[in-house]
Specification:
Elements lengths: L2 H23 L10 H12 L6 E5 L5 E5 H7 L13
Length: 88
């Protein structure tokens, strides 16, 4: 692995941990861990300039739903984790 790959992996792991903490401690009741991945994907999509990208979300019934990346950012109050000003 080169240095850039290692740095990206560390940055992604930190972001994933921050999302987990946010969903667990900033909401009552806390959101399930199953939403960490969709939130991470939404942040990445918005950071890449694609706030309208479709993100797949697991449902309580074991199925799947979908939402736009920008809508997930706003719903879960993830604006502070966005690196660009795409939706801010």
């Amino acid at each position: 692995m080169d240095q850039d790959t290692i740095k990206r992996a560390i940055k992604r792991a930190r972001l994933e941990n921050a999302i987990e903490w946010h969903l667990k401690y900033n909401f009552y009741p806390p959101y399930p861990r199953a939403l960490i991945k969709p939130c991470l994907e939404a942040i990445e999509a918005v950071n890449q300039g694609n706030p309208n990208g479709l993100i797949i979300i697991p449902t309580n019934e074991g199925g799947q739903g979908g939402a736009k990346a920008g809508d997930l950012i706003e719903f879960f109050n993830l604006e502070g984790m966005i690196e660009t000003e795409a939706i801010q």
